[in-house]
Design goal:
The chain is built from eight helices and 16 strands. With 384 residues, the chain is α+β, with helices and mostly antiparallel strands.
Length: 384
Amino acid sequence: MPSMLGTTVRVSVFGQSHSPAIGCVIEGLPSGFPVDLDALAHLMARRAPGQGPWATTRHEADTPRIVSGLDREGLTCGAPLAAVIENTDTRSQDYAQVASVPRPGHADLVAQAKWHGAQDVAGGGHFSGRLTAPLCVAGGICLQMLEARGVRVAAHLSSVAGVVDEPLSWRELTPDSQDRLARQMTVLSEAAFPVLDESAGERMREAIEAARKDADSVGGTIECVASGMPCGVGSPMADGIENLLSRAAFAIPAVKAIEFGAGFEAAGMRGSAHNDPYVPSPSGPLPAKNDAGGILGGITTGAPIRFRVAVKPTASIGREQDSVDLRTGEACRLAVHGRHDPCIAPRAAPVVEAVCALTLLDALLTWPADPDRHTDAEPASCEG
């Protein structure tokens, strides 16, 4: 059951939703970088459960314990960085029925077919959204390293239950538009609920609460933009930036679709409208607009990278649903117990930022814009 991402910066995630702990091991981080643990804690708090009525009531501190990879001054030292997060608020008894009656919308049945009962079913086991916490640890460190290189990443709820938020300013490349994008990114870094328009956020929360009271759930879409990536990062074919971001995005449970730039809208456009014309600049030709979403041929254009993911409604709902008892092969009814988010999307927004940052830092180090700057220098040692 390998759970790994990355080429130069490689992340392995371990644990289950109700195991004593979960965590990650990150290899290939540049050495000598001062990790800001307070900034990392802020990102973890944005993803953590128990934030409000739109989230599960499970309470976890989600404070990572770094057990290797940092020296005494808090600098990355070249060794694999390992982080552990304790699971302290589990109720495994809520999942006693899952071993024999698979929950609709969950991985219970396919896991049973693959591991024949040896899998951990409590809380979804290794399939749980709980495993996005260590992804945020890894991605949070990568976010800091990107910011030191002038790259910023921000994500928000572009829609929930038909309620639409103000879009991020990625499409137009005027100075005013890019200034607006910078301001929007700052707003989102401080937002308690990941929206730009607080009135839209209030309507989203009302829709989520209505679904919760109805023993149901709702989905949403998350828009993510990365600004400051230089032109020329990436590789064609299977190692294109879209490929890498897609693989990382689908590591987030409940993500069901992704689009880049104009995305599905491009299918209804003419080439004359969708193509991004070039204009001269002191540094060379630049795109005049950004329907490509900052990527052409799998390689960054220097414009903001923009993608959007669709998050399905939470599969765990209180309503009775049809299932099959695996012991008897007979039809039965199942109502899911336990504590679950009536909408996963709000807590998934920082996870999207994290996997985006992990992917882009890995791409910068693996397929840089200037290959002459890419070296295989030995990392600094933790010893001494």
